[in-house]
């Protein structure tokens, strides 16, 4: 398991890319006006338009796991709740809620 990225809502992708690159982050890739990934070399910040946000308008921590189903079982055993699994083009993911009510995304890469 590792921190995959922090998903930040991006209604103004060009302006937000400019902002984060001026702070020193490097663009890893950009997917049109939908999504851009930036990094400091360790953590990735994902700037996401509404179509790419797991929870609209919320900044979320995203954790990559090797086995999503096993992780979701651990989440519920630890007192959290897990939403439905969504299959995207690159990953399977679910929004989970920790015992303190905080939302985060856990995901397993496909392929």
Topology (elements, then pairings):
Layout: E1 2-9, H1 13-22, E2 26-31, E3 35-39, E4 44-48, E5 60-64, H2 68-77, E6 81-82, E7 86-87, E8 91-97, E9 103-109
Structure in words:
The protein folds into two domains: about 60 residues, 2,3-Dihydroxybiphenyl 1,2-Dioxygenase, domain 1 (Roll); about 45 residues, 2,3-Dihydroxybiphenyl 1,2-Dioxygenase, domain 1 (Roll). Helices cover about 20% and strands about 40% of the residues. Strands 1, 2, 3, 4, 5, 6, 7, 8 and 9 form a nine-stranded mixed β-sheet that branches. Strand 3 and strand 4 form a beta hairpin. The longest helix is centred in the N-terminal third of the chain and has 10 residues.
Summarize the structure in short.
The protein has 111 residues and is α+β, with helices and mostly antiparallel strands. It has helices at residues 13-22, 68-77, and strands at 2-9, 26-31, 35-39, 44-48, 60-64, 81-82, 86-87, 91-97, 103-109.
What's the CATH class of the largest domain, please? Alpha Beta
Helical amount among residues, as a percent range? Answer: 10-25%
Could you tell me the CATH topology label of the largest domain. Answer: 2,3-Dihydroxybiphenyl 1,2-Dioxygenase, domain 1
**Beginning-to-end CA distance, first to last residue:** 17 Å
Q: Report the sheet-strand fraction.
A: 35-45%
- The CATH superfamily of the largest domain bears the name 2,3-Dihydroxybiphenyl 1,2-Dioxygenase, domain 1
How many domains, as an integer?
Answer: 2
Number of helices: 2
Q: List low-confidence stretches.
A: none
The helix-and-strand class reads: alpha+beta
């Amino acid at each position: 398991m590792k921190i995959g990225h922090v998903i930040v809502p991006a209604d103004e992708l060009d302006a937000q890319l400019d902002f984060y690159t001026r702070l020193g982050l490097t663009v890893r890739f950009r997917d049109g006006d939908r999504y851009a990934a930036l990094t400091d070399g360790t953590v990735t910040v994902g700037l996401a338009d509404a179509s790419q946000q797991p929870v609209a308008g919320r900044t979320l921590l995203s954790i990559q796991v090797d086995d999503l189903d096993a992780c979701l079982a651990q989440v519920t055993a630890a007192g959290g709740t897990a939403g439905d699994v969504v299959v995207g083009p690159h990953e399977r993911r679910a929004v989970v809620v920790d015992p303190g009510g905080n939302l985060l995304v856990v995901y397993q890469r496909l392929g």
